[in-house]
Design goal:
By secondary structure, this protein is an all-alpha fold. It is about 90% helix and about 0% strand. Helix 2 packs across helix 3. The N and C termini lie far apart (about 85 Å).
């Protein structure tokens, strides 16, 4: 019985070490990914803010073009690209 308990205990310890190594590697991988993405997070945040702010205008434009989503998306993209070019040129 003592030998069986010792083998179960060793298996438990081995499994605990394996799980802790996997968790540590996942934490390191997550930290590395966040460090690589950190310079882009403000841009992503601004993109989300702008997308939420202009969505009602996009819906209005979509209704004006008869519910055609792709046409409305292309027109909206061209409109914002023109605004961006004018702002950068001026």
């Amino acid at each position: 019985m003592n030998l069986e308990y010792s083998l179960q205990n060793k298996e438990y310890v081995r499994r605990a070490i394996e799980v802790s190594i996997h968790v540590d590697l996942m934490v390191l991988l997550t930290a590395a990914c966040l460090m690589m993405l950190r310079p882009f997070l403000p841009l992503v945040a601004w993109g989300i803010i702008i997308a939420i702010a202009v969505f009602p205008a996009y819906r209005r434009l979509r209704n004006l073009v008869g519910g055609r989503r792709y046409l409305a998306a292309v027109l909206f993209t061209l409109l914002f690209l023109a605004i961006l070019i004018v702002l950068l040129a001026g």
